[in-house]
Amino acid sequence: MNTASTAPVTAVILVAAGSGQRLGYGMPKAKVPLGGDSILTHALRGVAAAGIARQICVALPPGDAELRAQCESFAAELQAEHRRTATSGAAVQLPAVSIVDGGASRADSVRAAVAALEPDVEAVLVHDAARALAPEAVFHRVAAALAAGAKAVIPVVPVVDTVKTVEATHDGSAGIAPEVVTGTAPREQLRSVQTPQGFELATLRRAHEAAAGFDADRAAAVTDDAMLVELLGVPVYAVRGASQSLKITTPLDLILAEGLLEGPLGARWVEG
Ligand code: CTP
Ligand code: MG
Q: Which residue of 13, 114, 128 sits with most ligand 1 atoms within 8 Å of its CB, as the best mutation to test the pocket?
């Protein structure tokens, strides 16, 4: 059991096994170039820079030798950096980097990575490689909530658009428009949810075990890990995310991410 004074032994799961259909680059999204490196390399750097992981477990598209080689050279760079800082007396903990084959869905990829965590891991942050520019401060806020006793914590940002629910029009009104509004969600209560999402490992395991029996439709509706924890009735806490943690999903997102890297504020600037 954690106390507020001791940080749990923490792993970071980086899910990078998606195919990137919506980005439309014809290659796995993790491989897509961003500012001279791949999306995967940027994401790995962000995780390492946060300095909270004893283990980094990366889920990759099965059989992708190029992404595997990128992970391995990143691990070698970390080791070299560790040796340099060790001689100067400023050593930080060296995370073990492990690689697993991702699955058909994001949840399958998370489950594969959870199964490969080292036995002493107590807490885990699950992070989308697609959020390649997530700043260190967000990792720290999530880790701090776990250290303070949360079993689940997510980074969130306020929603800027008004959000409505709709349904397909039918009968006489189908000729007017394809959808009709059924309600307006109260915006002040809404949050957009990002990663890294932090969990007590036992809670995340329980949440994913419960989801293993979902039928195909229900499984397809699982878009993050926190919603599985919510189904267990365990409180999920929310800390402040960051707009630069955007999920690179569409070509426009890639342009925004390139802009962040090239802009005067630097890649991992943090809003006040
Ligand atoms: N992911 C994964 N395994 C999958 C599907 C997704 O590890 N089977 C990862 C992606 O690599 C990404 C994160 O989950 O880092 C969020 O997924 P998303 O942004 O949807 O990425 P893709 O599934 O690759 O993109 P698309 O849905 O457009 O194909
Ligand atoms: Mg996807």
A: 128
CA 99 to chain centre: 16
Q: How far apart (Å, rounded) are the C-alpha atoms in residues 170 and 76?
A: 59
Task: For the chain, list the domains and their CATH numbers.
Answer: 10-269 (3.90.550.10)
pLDDT in tens, 85-104: 887 776 667 999 999 999 99
DSSP state letters, 171-231? GGGGGT-SEEEEEE--GGG-EEE-S-EEEEHHHHHHHHHHHTT--HHHHHT--SSHHHHHH
Q: Give the Å distance between the CA of 176 and the centre of ligand 1.
A: 36
Q: Tell me: the pLDDT tens digits for 160-178?
A: 999 999 999 988 887 899 9
Q: Which residues contact 93 (CB under 8 A, 6 or more apart)?
A: 51, 54
Three-class DSSP category at 232: helix
